[in-house]
Amino acid sequence: MREFERKPPVEVGDIRSVKIEAMGSSGDGIAKIEGFVVFVPGAKVNDEVTIRITKVLRKYGFAEIIE
Q1: pTM value?
Q2: What is the mean pLDDT of residues 58-62?
Q3: Contacts of 12 (CB under 8 A, 6+ apart)
Q4: Domains, in order of start, for the chain
Q5: Sign of the dihedral through C-alpha 33, 19, 57, 63
Q6: Per residue in 12-34, pLDDT tens?
Q7: In this structure, are residues 22 and 45 in contact, taking their beta carbons and an 8 Å threshold?
């Protein structure tokens, strides 16, 4: 029996403080919120930034830096 997909832990408009853990192939920073991957354009590894979620898909999301 398959487990139901978890609902993403963020919604569009959420504001979170995150640490960028990795870089994506297109150069976006990657943060994780409760294991959920969020791409953050303009961020570098080890940056600690405040982000606003701009788009949420099933397996990952996107955010913009606001601070």
Answers
A1: 0.89
A2: 95
A3: 53, 54, 55, 56
A4: 15-65 (2.40.50.140)
A5: positive
A6: 999 999 999 999 999 999 999 99
A7: yes
In contact, 19 and 48? CB cutoff 8 Å:
yes
Assign residue 60 a region (left: φ > 0; alpha: ψ between -120 and 50; beta: otherwise). Answer: beta
Q: pLDDT class for 67, splitting at 50, 70, 90?
A: confident
Chain centre to alpha carbon of residue 40: 6
- Cα–Cα distance between 20 and 25 in angstroms, integer? 14
Q: Can you tell me the distance from the alpha carbon of 13 to that of 3, in angstroms, rounded to the nearest whole number?
A: 28
